[in-house]
């Protein structure tokens, strides 16, 4: 056990109790104590209650000269629908490093959406004896970042429809007069943000009255093509009835109806902006540059064209500060951003990782999780997140389970909510060995980025020694730096000490720059094909719509952006049922979209749902408040 | 100037600068200093950054035995569309009492909606030298209460549509099996919240397998009549295109489309619940009792029937704690709840007032604002808010302006955004005198509750002494305890010292219980008619729809609730252009609705918009963040 003052010894019970019961059994430390342990002075954070603090971006100003710690990303093999414990392993590894190996360590994780918390999945704070606490504060509201995203996203949506409506009823001159109302002295002027649009359309005049009629038209009439609008409204609730709706049916809206829909808030481009931004000034530009659709002439229309980049930044100004929390064993956690892992890049924020790397300093560790399987989350971590941050990881942890490897070896389908087949509960070494092809491809993919790969086998009580040995042997044979059995779910950090040691060695024995899978300055198609090849595909097939979109984005000057594939995580290929390591398939690209402000183009491989639904009996049936103690009950 | 440590001397500039410039010119105190001044110990509040703290409801436990301060409500005469400075007067009066008259004082105000902040109106933190600061934190997100309301409201909305959908595709038995899934041992059981529904429908069995087929049907099938659903979705954005929408148009929803719409979040019944609740346990019951519509058989369906009362309470558990902020002169403010003033009761929360009254103690002052004109906001303060809280006010302040009185005397129409007519900028004593009938009726209405009435004339630089004298004379003649000229907008608390003295005397010289306008145990119609009489109406006319609804609510057992009139604030009557003190008119009741969980029935007098729109040039064009300093600019 380390000597640090904030660390907490766990009293482990077997069998492992429910997550909420474990979380509630530990009294969290006041977050100022955690802050002190990572040398955060009180002027560098704002408290949000007793157990959460927002770390101010300004902390970086004072740390510019100091060195970074080791940077570890946690990915996984292609998972079953039950998940293989990536978050739990991320937390467990940090508990081991911090509480047992005497290392400075910060865990960086995503903020979960509230939708699944009340739907099917429950919370996302890790599990067993490897959790972020307080679990209810982690899963609900937290410090309001997702609410800020919802507010900003929907203000932009409201501005789009209202602008189209007002343009439909007003002359060019009327529009200009309303956009630039006279002040008390009767003088009209442009607001600061209007100069951004004037510059974009090549007008250098500074007074509204100097514009020619053509310039007035060009400036004041955005002429948005309603059919081109890609900006949807969002809500952090699983509301399937909002997937496709018609708006504008009130009598005051004079028949200007339009089909659109809601996504869940974490699918908003603003979430992706939050995750990829590097500073307030950078966020201001990204938010202003978000493209909501095209004019009828085909010009991209941005949030700044609508006058909103500044207001969106104001709504997001606190959200840019990561939230400090703690693990069950008292090690620090930064929770920040949680973009979708298919239509976005599925990684927590750059700013949190940057702050964490400075706080732990050289020889300290920052462990950050990449969503989905490593073919998606970790690939995007490397090619999108690290490209924008300039940071270099030393180690990739690949989480594997005997259960998932058996599935890849040919075991029966695993379905959430249904009892596991007998195959998964009894020894079958051959099946495990057969499934290791999946793990091997993830290992070799990750190695190609120049990092050391450590396999973490997240052990279940039903796993046999022979099965576990089969995995570690296969991992080493596939080129892993090390492969370690972990029991952090049952034992907390103590169960991940071997993993911690392996990760430390892996980090210390690598020192090369990150090798990207593709350069930015090749065509969109070349980039897509490079990623497809890493999946095992022999080629790529583009739909007519995809071709059209690629041509449009290339013409609009967006072809130099990185690529964010929207693909299932349940197979290397586009077909979820193809387990193991499929190859020789042709990857179909159904459509291509873009998050210009966030900074990526996302090809759609198949259909992606961006708004989950509630089941007949959602989690909320069990959730209540003990009004006498104020304690949340039934959260899972 | 008082001796208190937190009070701050203002350096007043003339002419009065823009609100945001005044707000930014003052460095707010750390909120823990304000907390200390009102004897709040650190274990009774949670910090939210440096300038906001949530005061925990538990503070009341330790103060049960101590006495309350004086309780002052601020209402207004029938206003112009520009507003007559009720919030500013509320803040100015408190700055006078706290910073100049050495009184313990707490200001209780509503949290503003973000919609108007980015739309037309701008913020709502008061104005000039009488403001709540930091103004940007007050107007944006604050401590997340409205976001929590949005999340809770929309989770309930999603649950309604999803339940109807699932009921349409499943047998009674299938529904029961899904609602009560087997545990690991294969046993089915009811969750705690299901016992609420079982009790409601008269079933005392405790095991799912014991239900008869009829009981299964009764329990598991809510059979919601889609046409009866009154629960709408909400968003804290001015989004006019969401006023009327069709949901469920996605292919997975199998054609189960439905017309519905969004209101702005502050119009949610959950906001009214927050404002009227008295404890966590009370809030749990009110949220569970909210009626979302009827079954096809006409039974009201509640949030608890849908299994959601507990989860909604969990989402609202932090929102129930009021937010402590400060005025420009360093006096404490509690910001909490902000229900609509037409379809709801337009007053800040009961819990904030209760906490404030204990914190200031006997001889201290709590000043709370009631939205709209006194015919609406203050009437509801008395008959709804005080009825639920059991608190007794001593003094009602009626804010009047020369401008509004001239309008009531027959001056030309006042329109927001258009220059004021010359009449309002030059002396016209006769017009002012003629308009005083409006003020006189408000005074006499308020007096009937047993409180002393003090008129605060919010002075503008164009007002003449003769005009001002005319008002104070008329006020005294109408029975006001006192009438005082105030200049707090230009001078801060110093400009409201006379008002503070008058209010103090008014409070000290009254000691009678609150006399309600109507008892609860008469019929809905009798209650409506009592309120209509206070407007000057000679009678009430009910539409067929209103008659039907009154009959339904009476049959459902809800006739004992107080009445919350949804009427324009621009006239005592239902016609906004009828200024002065109209009488002899017949008040038309178009429809009658109910917020059963919040606890009132609301008759609709005319059409009420519950979702504002954005203008062609919304406020957001001026709002930006100075990314170098992190300061918000352009907020008004």
TrEMBL record, chains A, B:
Keywords: ATP-binding, Ligase, Nucleotide-binding, One-carbon metabolism
E.C. no: 6.3.4.3
Reaction it catalyzes: (6S)-5,6,7,8-tetrahydrofolate + formate + ATP = (6R)-10-formyltetrahydrofolate + ADP + phosphate
One GO location term (cellular component): cytosol
PROSITE patterns: FTHFS_1, FTHFS_2
Description of how the protein assembles with itself and partners: Homodimer.
Name of protein: Formate--tetrahydrofolate ligase
